Request: fold
Amino acid sequence: MDKPVVSRRDFVKSAAIVAGGAMVAAQGEAQEQKKSFKVGLIGCGGRGKGAIRNNLSAGKALGIEVKVVALADAYQDRVHGAQKMLAKEGHEVPANRCFVGFDAYKKLIATDVEIVLMATPPNFRPWHFAAAIEAGKHVFMEKPVAVDPVGCRKIMEAGKLAAQKKLGVVAGTQRRHSANYIANQKLVAEGAIGKILSGQIYWCMGKLWFKKRKKEWDPAEYLVRNWVSFTEMSGDHICEQHVHNIDIANWFLGGHPLVAVGFGGRARRQTGDQFDFFSIDFEYPGGVHIQSMCRQVNGCWNRVGEHLVGEKGTTSCGGRIDATPKVKMPKLKRSDPYMQEHYDLMESLLKGQPLMEAQNVAEATLAAVMGRISAYTGQKVTWDEMMKSDFHLKPTPEDFETGKVVLPREEPPVPGKA
Ligand SMILES: NC(=O)c1ccc[n+]([C@@H]2O[C@H](COP(=O)([O-])OP(=O)(O)OC[C@H]3O[C@@H](n4cnc5c(N)ncnc54)[C@H](O)[C@@H]3O)[C@@H](O)[C@H]2O)c1
Reply:
């Protein structure tokens, strides 16, 4: 794996960072000598195992020791899988530090862990994040970070507390840690394509997995093992996947959309309660419209990416800029953005200038939720409504913890009636 090539100085210019100030610098000097981190993982599935490996690689690239001190998952087989994987790579996590159950996150947070990695399905994230910040832990959290307006605002609030506490928070919106996106965004912010007038963003691809319900699975286990089919768990795929592209639009446009009008439907799925496709018109300040499309249906045209149109040209955000006058892209040595995000988090902590990405990822998630609600209901939905809404999907994280999970009906919403 390449050593990271994006310096934090570049990053500071291009990502939203809430740090700085004399206090942080002073704390930074005190921390300058720190050469190790104790890390723990909540959610030991596919991405969680990937994230912890990325974190360990980042530690190596930074020349510091990273010690995995605890693991947590709702289910034993998942914790065990991660424990085995880590043991093979020389990282022993003792059994008494492997926690199982829907309250396992509390036990992990109560250890001496310093950085908590979060990779459960997104509906749990606001509660896990708030608990970690309350306990004074730094956090890497996978996107999306919630599934409803209440959850998004909980992330925003906990993010503010984290900033006050000088904690570091990085989100799994890895394009913000990708050298080509960072370089492109900087050029666009400097006026390479002039004022942005409009754009398109896409996450169109085939279907994801589904696991047939086993007799012994209670409703909670069925939902967790099939979380990508239930809006209550994933926020639907507009939130779960397309949040990446919405985040890019927000980043390049310097803020979130104000209004969403969209539609969607279900043609392929037989299970769960999500849609198969969405098309949303997001209106940003200044009347800029971004057309968003996402789909999970096999055998169709696919595209994952972004395209922005400005007064002087266009950009694919992560790639070329076509503009008059011509824009020369800098030569970039690329690194793996999945590793770079951990590198950037730990480097920022070592320097005493903790990164803070909670607000950005919460806004991208809330924009996705706003688009979904517009498509589900068939109504125009505004950001102001989302910021006031007490809409909170059930089963809630608390229902999982208290064993009160009721399975949602496995049918999609009907626009005009939902
Ligand atoms: N950044 C990216 O490109 C990227 C890629 C893949 C996944 N993700 C995100 O990572 C997250 C996890 O996705 P995944 O593919 O690893 O899913 P997964 O199903 O493989 O893993 C989720 C794990 O969380 C566990 N879990 C569920 N609820 C829990 C709880 N309350 N407490 C503790 N553990 C719990 C599950 O048992 C499972 O092991 C999702 O938010 C997903 O959107 C991000």
Notes: The CA atoms of residues 141 and 171 lie 5 Å apart. DSSP finds 16 helices and 14 strands in the chain.
